[in-house]
Amino acid sequence: MFKGALPGFRDFYPQELAERAFIMDAWRDVARRYAFQEYDGPPLEPLDLYTKKSGDEIVGQLYNFIDKGGREVALRPEMTPTVARMVAARANALRKPVRWFSMPQLFRYERQQKGRLREHYQLNVDIFGSADIAADAELVACAIDMMRAFGLTSSDVVARVSDRRILRAFLESLGVPAQSIVGVYGVIDKIDRTPRELSAEKLAALDVPAEAIERIVTIATVQLSEVLARLASMPALVHAEEFGRFMRYTAALLGGDASWLRLDLSIVRGLAYYTGVVFELFDTSGEFRAICGGGRYDNLLESLGGADMPAIGFGMGDVVLGELLRAKGLMKPESTAADVWVAADEHTPLESVMQEAARRRASGQSVEYSLRPQTMSKQKKAAQASGAKAFVSLPNDNASHG
Amino acid sequence: MFKGALPGFRDFYPQELAERAFIMDAWRDVARRYAFQEYDGPPLEPLDLYTKKSGDEIVGQLYNFIDKGGREVALRPEMTPTVARMVAARANALRKPVRWFSMPQLFRYERQQKGRLREHYQLNVDIFGSADIAADAELVACAIDMMRAFGLTSSDVVARVSDRRILRAFLESLGVPAQSIVGVYGVIDKIDRTPRELSAEKLAALDVPAEAIERIVTIATVQLSEVLARLASMPALVHAEEFGRFMRYTAALLGGDASWLRLDLSIVRGLAYYTGVVFELFDTSGEFRAICGGGRYDNLLESLGGADMPAIGFGMGDVVLGELLRAKGLMKPESTAADVWVAADEHTPLESVMQEAARRRASGQSVEYSLRPQTMSKQKKAAQASGAKAFVSLPNDNASHG
Predict the structure, then answer these.
(1) Last residue of some domain: B294, B327, B360?
(2) Do both A384 and A297 map to the same domain?
(3) Of A393, A148, A358, whose CA–CA distance to B252 is shortest?
């Protein structure tokens, strides 16, 4: 007897496939309206594409093996190395800025936990080759417009946005020693899941002055006006001013609606590779993990040995988003049932039914019918069970009608 | 510096992705009109799912490995074992007949040859749970309607159809010894790529009578009338009569157009698992490999330890089809360029451009614009390079128009 799928892998029966398609179609439609072009790469890549970016530690989480040609390979755990490789290969030929998106299935060998998946689909949207803050606004607005496309509002979802350069300057202005900055990032990254006292202890251990500790443990409440005031005499003021522009631009791209956006300096997004704006989308109830995360990573492509190109992007998975849509009653996949069931009495040749089906299919309708002559009541039952939206029966003079 | 993709794997830059989407969208549209429902399974499956069907020999062609949980796994080389597993798991709950399609990426470690791929996308369309010949007609008509959806005609493509049961009876009627039938299938399977003398020699070695050899080496020319005459007094006559119905049904489903169909008893499709109708689609020029192949496999699901359910299906890959469409000038992917480029003179605030972009995007247009203020001539050049279908510039009174 068959066993099921591997642990952590999903079978997509028609209902689940329709839900996956509902999400992907909306992603694709919004990405297209923002003039992003779809691309894809191989699900299997050379292993060193990933170790080069993330170090050898990542191998423990990969589906990696040696192929029959002796190559070390891995199922892709993320899309960035692939897209960096593809952009680097045509760096000169590609029109800049490169506006690309993709919806790859990604794979990680996670420790087995209830409901923990080892694959998911992740929308990746990136702009390569523009250092302009308008590119950052385009990305954040695009992510938010996807929420709107699903029927979510700013009461459901908030975009928490920050900027690495502002956070650094803000911490410096508070008197955090330069050698402690990276350590403090680590504390801030976990600050909303850590008891306040514990965060304070950790900050003290990093030689953060007491007054600064008080401000850092509630750093999520810092407003842009406070940032501007604190950085007034620092060179980083330009970044804070640029961030203000970024917020106005994003609102403009949302048709003037700034209600989705919240400055939140506690958004760090890990320790590595982000160089400017960073952002995450969360449900306002705080019930789910992040829906989406991204930011500017101007040095990554070059550090991977690729093109020296500024870049900003985000990823959005299908799993958390799907959970949120279901919780809000907004998961509305298209029906997979036929438009029409064509029937005829059992003495009518099947060919007449088929000709009618052919005519309707040619005009774009989806049509099902009984694959053998049956009584009308059996056909009605079958049609009902199928969920077909309409039931059409041919006249019983053995002729078909149009 | 980056190396490229693994040998035999494709990168899909936007142009190639658009061609892939052109093929897949047409597949999906026709499958939907025929009331097939889309499903998908994991690209990684337990290795024994494949060895159970194809024996241990297949392992040499697989991307197989041991995962971090000690499981023997493989990237899927075909979809049938996955769909058999999925149908078996819900055999009782699923409405019959099950009409499903899928478009999985499949993987095989082929010996490296110029242009030989190690992955491709393959449309799989199947009906499970119907032994009716109308199901066979639905499948063949669906495959042919896909050709029509691409703009191909019966001058470009022919469906060569046969039936295993008829072939067997026909060979028996010619006096082929029962113990030679399977060997003769093997000769017939290669008959159109083998010199006639060599085929004749092989048949003689299988104790096929001289007169029968003469008919078998030109078996592709056998007409249904000849089959009916030869099988007149045999029990297999019912299969020949049913095959006649199958041909009429398929034509009815094509709106009365039988020109796509040709009985061709030389279509064997390997030696294993097909039990009735078998078919392949070929370009009439004979330039390309088969576009599509399939048939009835009523015993496979049960033999794999799954549900005892009749089944018929076909597979159609993206590679040969893509080559054919390109050769015929019928590869017509949608443009990936934006609908509109919005511009404004360099003194207009970028926010005005963004508001205009937002308005147009909200109405469904895809919109691009320069991410920094630029001279009008620079913006025109950028728009032109992007291929945008229209160029709209805001009036230079700093107001945006609708």
Answers:
(1) B327
(2) no
(3) A358
Distance from chain centroid for Cα B270: 17
Q: Is residue B7, in this structure, part of any structural domain at all?
A: no
Q: Do both B350 and B293 map to the same domain?
A: no
Separation of alpha carbons B80 and B58, rounded Å: 14
B347 and B323 in a single domain? The answer is: no
Q: Tell me whether residue A132 is in a domain.
A: yes
Model pLDDT for residues A261-287, shown as the tens digit of each residue: 999 999 988 767 899 999 999 999 999
pLDDT, tens digit (0-9, with 9 covering 90-100), for A337-387: 999 999 999 999 999 999 999 999 999 999 999 999 999 999 999 999 999
Cβ contact, residue pair A119, B85, below 8 Å = no
Interface probe, candidates B2, B99, B360, chain A, greatest A C-beta count within 10 A: B2
Containing structural domain, residue B107: 23-327
| B147 part of a folded domain | yes
Element (H, E) at A215: helix A210-216
Does residue B189 sit in the same domain as residue B127? yes
Same domain? B370 vs B276: no
Q: Determine the pLDDT at residue A204.
A: 96
Cβ contact B146:B30 at 8 Å:
yes
B33/A134 touch (CB, cutoff 8 Å), yes or no: no
Chain B positions touching A304 (Cβ under 8 A) are 2
Asked if A98 is an interface residue toward chain B (Cβ–Cβ < 8 A), one would say: no
Is the pLDDT at B112 greater than 80, yes or no? Answer: no
Total domains in the fold of chain B: 2
- For chain B positions 321-350, those within 8 Å of chain A (CB to CB) are 336, 338, 350
A68 touches chain B (CB under 8 A): yes
* Dihedrals phi, psi of A358, to nearest 5 degrees: -60, -45
pTM > 0.90: yes
A and B: number of Cβ contacts within 8 A: 236
The pLDDT tens digits for B151-198 are 999 999 999 999 999 999 999 999 999 999 999 999 999 998 899 999
Query: Average pLDDT, stretch A152-170?
Result: 97
Q: A42, B9: Cβ pair inside 8 Å?
A: yes
**B264 in any annotated domain:** yes
Answer yes or no: do A66 and B65 touch at CB < 8 A. Answer: yes
Q: Tell me, yes or no, if B219 comes closer than 8 A to chain A by beta carbon.
A: no
> In sequence order, what are the residues at sequence separation of 6 or more whose Cβ sits closer than 8 angstroms to the Cβ of residue B317?
B120, B121, B122, B123
The answer to whether B145 faces chain A, any CB pair under 8 Å, is yes
Residues of A in contact with B89 (CB under 8 A): 2, 4, 11
| pLDDT greater than 50 at residue B401 | no
Residues in chain B with CB shorter than 8 Å from the CB of A33 are 361, 364-367
Q: For residue A41, what is the nearest residue in chain B, using CA coordinates?
A: B11
Residue-wise DSSP of A298-345: TTHHHHTTS----EEEEEEEHHHHHHHHHHTT---PPP-S-SEEEE--
- Banded model confidence at residue B307, pLDDT cuts 50, 70, 90: confident
DSSP code of residue B12: B
Same domain, A48 and A153: yes
Q: Report which DSSP code applies to B179.
A: G
Same domain as A213, residue A125 = yes
CATH number of the domain within which B283 lies: 3.30.930.10
Looking at residue B397, what is its pLDDT? 58
Which of A150-164, B269-283, B351-365 comes out lowest in average pLDDT?
B269-283
Q: Is the same domain home to A76 and A154?
A: yes
State mean pLDDT over A192-221.
95
Among A121, A75, A72, CA closest to B74: A75
Q: What is the pLDDT of residue A80?
A: 95
Task: Give the confidence band of A170 by pLDDT, cuts at 50, 70, 90.
Answer: very high
Q: Do A366 and B35 touch (CB under 8 A)?
A: yes
Q: Which of B107, B102, B156 is nearest to B325 (CA)?
A: B156
A253 touches chain B (CB under 8 A): yes
- End residue of a domain, out of A327, A350, A385: A327
Mean pLDDT of A147-155: 98
What's the gap in Å between the CA of A399 and the closest CA on chain B? 14
